[in-house]
Amino acid sequence: MESTLPTTRSTAFSIRAILGLFKLRIGVVITFTALAGLSVSSGPSLSLVQLLTLTLAVLVSSASAGAFNQYYEHDIDPLMSRTRQRPFATGEIKHGPVWLLVIFGLMAVSVAAAWLALNAWAALFTFLGAFFYAIVYTVWLKRRTWLNIVFGGLAGSWAVLAGATAVDPQVGAVPLILAFVLFLWTPPHFWSLAIAYREDYAAAGVPMLPVVVGDQRAAKAIFGSTLLLVATSLLPLAFGLGAIYFAGAGIGGFLFIQKAWRLVQNTNRQTAMTCFHASLAQLTLVLTAAIIDARF
Questions:
Q1: Are 268 and 228 in contact (CB under 8 A)?
Q2: φ, ψ for residue 78 (rounded to 5)?
């Protein structure tokens, strides 16, 4: 009994590290956006196999991009309190080229599965979601410009379109608007977190907006972009979504605007994290209401 206990603990810890490596929580959110894009699109219903393939393809491609993000940033993750316990940063998982084979292998399999079970458009958008997070955001932009998360945020937009084109390559107005909502949502969502961890990003040399312009100006940018986001999120009402969607988008938007305004009035770590969590609530309400309104 005693001789097996360390092994059991080590195995459990390694599984937890691997799950953390692939950022599955983010992957679940990205997958949810794809299912929302699917739900608001007209076209023939997917079979169960096709639905499972879409779900797993988006989840696995997102997970591979998340793992690549940690692989690439193993040098700066130890400098930040939020990321210093990541497995590559701690050495719990050995950093080496074999992980690149695993990461890109998973991405290739997910894209190929989407192509074979769905169509080329769904496969393309599945690929673009991973590509924009792993390469455009992580490699090209994150350490160079405060616009990093603006364009990197397209990862969620591509996921919406992957879901939409799975049933109809001719993308309708509502999924296009939801994709734009995801594009507008990412900056105020992530800038709120960046205010809370500004010192970390500064220490790591990452030019997130609060590092470049200061917390107060960043808070004003968050408030302005939140207003634009909420206004855009109401546009699907003009293209067929109804009262259920209005309730979700309205409540979520009001909450996010309220917390963003409070962040402007009193810019500190606590109000920044409150705004960050409000952004998650807003997105959840918008996507859930869209699915319910469109399907039920």
A1: no
A2: -65, -15
Instruction: Kindly report the CATH number assigned to the domain that includes residue 99.
Output: 1.10.357.140
Do residues 98 and 76 both lie within one domain? yes
1 occurs within a structural domain: no
Give yes or no for a contact between 41 and 163, defined as CB atoms under 8 angstroms apart: yes
Cα–Cα distance measured from residue 167 to residue 164, given in angstroms and rounded to the nearest whole number: 6
Residue in the structure block whose two tokens are 């998360």: 149
Distance CA 291, CA 296 (A): 8
**Same domain assignment for residues 125 and 53:** yes
pLDDT digits (tens, 9 = 90+) for 55-90: 999 999 999 999 999 999 999 999 999 899 899 998
- pLDDT, one tens digit per residue, over 15-48 is 777 777 888 888 999 999 999 999 999 888 899 9
Q: For residues 153 and 101, state if they share a domain.
A: yes
Any idea of the CA torsion for 278, 32, 183, 285, to the nearest 10 degrees? -40
8 A C-beta contact, residue 256 and residue 179: no
CA 20 to chain CA centroid, nearest Å? 15
